[in-house]
């Protein structure tokens, strides 16, 4: 396929690169940046380090490290930030033929541009790329896979809403997606159902019902899943003691963290980490 892999820095900007309508990957690193455009293709903009600030069709989005923004053809996009440290990101662009096939395969074209939380695959890809262990084409397909998952998930969740009005369905989906992003960004804070419902402009009962209808779990269970996933990520790293991880996750007592972790994994944090280290040695 020959996917172009382009590095953008203070010497080269995306507007200097004539690749309109084609598949490409742009790896960027800026302390300050400002650019506006009308999106020509489907694209996924992922932040590796720092925070990128976008405005899409008049709506503002702060995209933090580990999050990405999905942009559709025709979207009016402005992006800009100023930071004392370099902000690193990667943009996956999908050509016209790929975009058309995407939307013809049952994906919803009504996905509002919004921020999504990704898993660690893109960070792992970046590490592999820096080590010379992956190609541009493999990287592009990783971005395509994540985009496919997002659209499939959105389409699946939209079908679960029991409402005949498309505008109401979109508004409810947006409210619940905003709530899930809020929970991701406040994973270490105390769970507050009233605040979530207030932010969504719903009563607690209505918010609970719609959230579970769309995601399949209650807001509190969703929050616990995020904390458990983050606990596993921190335990996977070797630099933090288990007590430090407990504090990081908002647990004031190690016993409370151990009880929480065992409920989700079936083993204590220390046993889980020992098993992981044994797998690394093997």
Automatic annotation (TrEMBL):
<dbReference type="InterPro" id="IPR018060">
    <property type="entry name" value="HTH_AraC"/>
</dbReference>
<keyword id="KW-0805">Transcription regulation</keyword>
<dbReference type="Pfam" id="PF02311">
    <property type="entry name" value="AraC_binding"/>
</dbReference>
<dbReference type="GO" id="GO:0043565">
    <property type="term" value="F:sequence-specific DNA binding"/>
</dbReference>
<protein>
    <submittedName>
        <fullName>AraC family transcriptional regulator</fullName>
    </submittedName>
</protein>
<dbReference type="GO" id="GO:0003700">
    <property type="term" value="F:DNA-binding transcription factor activity"/>
</dbReference>
<feature type="domain" description="HTH araC/xylS-type">
    <location>
        <begin position="177"/>
        <end position="275"/>
    </location>
</feature>
<dbReference type="InterPro" id="IPR050204">
    <property type="entry name" value="AraC_XylS_family_regulators"/>
</dbReference>
<dbReference type="InterPro" id="IPR020449">
    <property type="entry name" value="Tscrpt_reg_AraC-type_HTH"/>
</dbReference>
<keyword id="KW-0804">Transcription</keyword>
<dbReference type="InterPro" id="IPR003313">
    <property type="entry name" value="AraC-bd"/>
</dbReference>
<dbReference type="InterPro" id="IPR009057">
    <property type="entry name" value="Homeodomain-like_sf"/>
</dbReference>
<keyword id="KW-0238">DNA-binding</keyword>
<dbReference type="InterPro" id="IPR037923">
    <property type="entry name" value="HTH-like"/>
</dbReference>
<dbReference type="Pfam" id="PF12833">
    <property type="entry name" value="HTH_18"/>
</dbReference>
């Amino acid at each position: 396929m020959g996917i172009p892999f382009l590095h953008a820095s203070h010497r080269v900007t995306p507007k200097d690169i004539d690749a309109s309508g084609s598949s490409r990957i742009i790896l960027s690193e800026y302390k300050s940046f400002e650019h506006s455009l009308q999106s020509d293709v489907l694209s996924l903009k992922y932040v590796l380090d720092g925070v990128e600030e976008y405005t899409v069709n008049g709506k503002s989005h702060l995209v933090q490290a580990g999050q990405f923004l999905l942009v559709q053809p025709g979207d009016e996009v402005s992006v800009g930030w100023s930071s004392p440290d370099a902000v690193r990101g990667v943009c996956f662009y999908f050509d016209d033929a790929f975009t058309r096939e995407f939307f013809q395969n049952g994906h919803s074209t009504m996905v509002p541009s919004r921020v999504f939380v990704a898993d660690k695959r893109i960070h792992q890809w970046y590490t592999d790329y820096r080590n010379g262990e992956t190609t541009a084409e493999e990287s592009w397909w990783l971005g395509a896979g994540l985009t496919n998952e997002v659209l499939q998930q959105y389409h699946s969740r939209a079908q679960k809403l029991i409402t005949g009005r498309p505008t109401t369905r979109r508004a409810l989906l947006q409210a619940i997606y905003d709530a899930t992003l809020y929970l991701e960004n406040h994973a270490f804070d105390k769970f507050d159902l009233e605040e979530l419902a207030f932010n969504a402009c719903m009563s607690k009962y209505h918010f609970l019902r719609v959230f579970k209808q769309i995601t399949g779990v209650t807001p509190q269970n969703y929050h616990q899943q995020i904390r458990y996933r983050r606990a596993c990520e921190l335990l996977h790293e070797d630099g933090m003691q288990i007590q430090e991880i407990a504090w990081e996750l908002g647990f004031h007592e190690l016993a409370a963290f151990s009880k929480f972790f065992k409920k989700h994994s079936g083993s204590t944090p220390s046993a889980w980490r020992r098993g992981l280290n044994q797998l690394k040695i093997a």
